[in-house]
Amino acid sequence: MRREKSFRGISKRLARHYLENLGGEVQDDGSVEGDDWHVSLSSEKVSIGPTVELTEVTVVFEGDEEKLDPLVEEFSQKAMRAGG
User: Which of 19, 28, 35, 73 could form a disulfide with 24 if both were Cys (CB 3.0 to 4.6 A apart)?
Assistant: First the structure.
């Protein structure tokens, strides 16, 4: 199973930190792996109005559906508290 979500106002570093707290281990390529799941991260600057830019981190979750559903939910809660 694969799920892709985007979060604004957080950094890739913070996203990795959250994933580590959820049981993952950061790999040499910057992705994060846990039991039965793998997450890759990318980021870009997006414009919000004429003068404001935010970082948008795209998180691609892959793995077993039973493990992925709670992981995505827990990560989303953490990211929404930090970001916008």
Answer: 19
Domains of the chain listed by start with CATH number: 2-82 (3.30.1370.80)
Burial state string for 55-80 with b = 16 or more CB within 10 A and e = fewer than 16: bbbebebbbeeebbeebbeebeebbe
CA torsion sign for 43, 13, 63, 79 is negative
Sign of dihedral through CA atoms 69, 44, 81, 50? negative
Distance separating alpha carbons of residues 33 and 49, to the nearest angstrom: 36
User: Is residue 30 over pLDDT 70?
Assistant: yes
**What span, in angstroms and rounded, lies between the C-alpha atoms of 26 and 52?**
31
